[in-house]
Amino acid sequence: MTKEICKTCSKEFVIRDEDLVFYEQVKTVPPIYCPECRMARRLLFRNERILYKRPCDLCKKDMITLYSPESLYKVYCHDCWWSDDWNPKSFGRDYDFSKTFFEQYKKLQKEVPRLGLAAFKNIQSDYTNGSAENKDCYLIFASDYNEECLYSRLLQRDKQCVDCAFLHESELCYECIDCRKCFKCMFSEQCRDSSDLLFCYNMRNSQNCILSTNGRNASNSILNIKYTKEEFEKKKKEILKDYESIEKAKKEFVELKKNTIRKFTMQTKCHNVTGDYIHNCYDGVELFDTFDAKNCSYMKDTEKPIDSMDCNNYYYNPHFGYNIMGALEGSMLRNSAFVFYSNEVDYCDMCYNLANAIGCISIRKGNYMILNKEYEKESFDKLRTQIIAEMKKEKDYGQFFPPEIAPFAYNESLINDFYPLTKDEAIKRGYRWQEKTTGTYGKETIKNEDIPKSISGVDENILDEILVCSDCNKNYKIIRAELEFYKRINLPLPQKDFECRHNDRMKKRNGMKLYHRSCMKEGCTNEFETTYAPDRPEIIYCESCYQQEVY
Ligand SMILES: [Zn+2]
Ligand SMILES: [Zn+2]
Ligand SMILES: [Zn+2]
Ligand SMILES: [Zn+2]
Question: What percentage of the chain reaches a pLDDT higher than 70?
Fold first, then answer.
């Protein structure tokens, strides 16, 4: 184990012996930035939710895209980008050793057209990104195989769910986070195999519960006390009566959760790992929102990765990946963004079926390529070795793209979700800031106080109104599918726009920082790494104390 000082934040960080073995395996050099600063660089490459309307630079038709109309890049719609009407290899150029790699890369970046949106095989779901195989969905992100879902992030195989995040195989849920196989649940967190839950936390195999926590096989429970079905229905009606009664229950739930015993991490079937929100992971540190990982560390939003480090949004069995934002399958992927079904690539962006490449953009199939130009194997190998030797001299090689290469501004990219900065702070640290993102202000046609407090008073005319967010004053609208959903489950209209609702939801989850703490059960001396900061009010137990208490 060695200790290093991060070249960005000047904090000390650790490089473990197994990290060094890994760097050798993927043919790279040890990092000069701490895990947090490495993650930040990658997040800057991901605009997940800020959508714009602008014309495609090829067919000139309007499209929904991640790039603002003022963006420096050429942007193509899905059909044009994939068409034979242009050739990304025509932008190929010779490598110039009198200039740095990133100078040349940046120039290429301004010329090669980019894919407007990362959305595939969706049906009637234009306003989604990082998405595939969705049907009739609206404003859902990083989500696959859903039907009729709205305003959500990270949904997998859900149906008719609205305002949810990290939700799997569920139906008719509203405002749920980290739930799996749930039906008709609302305002609930970390629940599984349950139905008709309202303001519940960490329930399993439970039905008809309100304001209950850590329940197993519970039914008709209110505040963890068993009632009759009639009493449950009465209480449910009372809470869902109108906007105010729901707001009151929200506050009650926050207090209830403070006094609830919690496991130090949301880990299931894991062995020898640290991190949170993880399942079936073996051997690694700092894993977040990761499933089925073997021998991986410093990962976020990944599924089935093997022998990889520092990867985000990395799916379908990729292995030997390092410093990656966005990949499907592939191996020996280094320092790249959105590289799909590719092998042995360095510093590539938005490429498919690419092998043996460095510094390529928007390639759809290629081999032995540098700056979008194709080579014979021998000359490629020679040139690649020379380029990497030069980059190593500048300490550029082995680190993810520097922030000035990022295609998005600070407040457009996911970095703003995890490490929020004000405009002034971001600019001071050298990041770009997007002045005009989407949306309007001051155009509302109805005030919040004039919105009916219960859904029974709302009719179709609301679809023509422009509402105003009670938090940020941004305008928003109610769409038909949404109104039908609220009517169906008897919910009042929201009084915040979808961005503020999303932010409120994300605040309920823990961050990606780990703290070394000990179990709070009296007499227990077990220690662990947890995302619960020491000053948090919750009661945090080790695995075995938690099992004794809850199972
Ligand atoms: Zn740092
Ligand atoms: Zn087009
Ligand atoms: Zn807002
Ligand atoms: Zn304990």
Answer: 100
